[in-house]
Design a protein that fits this description.
Elements lengths: L1 E3 L15 H19 L11 H11 L9 E6 L5 H9 L3 E6 L3 H7 L3
Parallel strand pairs: 1-3, 2-3
Length: about 110
């Protein structure tokens, strides 16, 4: 598992209301605040409950062949909950998580 917060910057949003740097700062601040309030939990990544997070993961992984090896690029990985879910249900996979919040990345590296 690898986590990084590197990104290319300088693009404008579709509406032209901000640069990618501004959006990155706003998203990072929002989720940094959430994880500081709630810790590395479903609420910490703004899900209503662990059940809703697990349901999302269950739906997402329906496309995975149970016996096969696969890889996942998790953009906006938060504290890495998906990799924990995958480890419970699958034996062979590669995972790469990317997030803009340094606090989320710190939490993810503790997994």
């Amino acid at each position: 598992m690898r986590h990084t917060n590197e990104t290319k910057t300088g693009c404008d949003t579709a509406r032209g209301t901000g640069t990618l740097d501004e959006i990155k700062r706003a998203v990072s601040a929002y989720y940094t605040d959430k994880v500081k309030q709630h810790g590395p939990t479903a609420l910490g990544v703004d899900w209503n409950s662990i059940e809703s997070q697990e349901l999302r993961f269950s739906q997402l992984t329906k496309v995975i062949e149970p016996a096969g090896e696969f890889s996942v690029n998790d953009l906006g990985c938060g504290y890495g909950a998906l990799v924990s879910y995958l480890a419970k249900h699958y034996q062979r996979f590669q995972y790469f998580g990317l997030d803009w919040s340094p606090v989320m990345i710190d939490e993810a590296t503790r997994l």
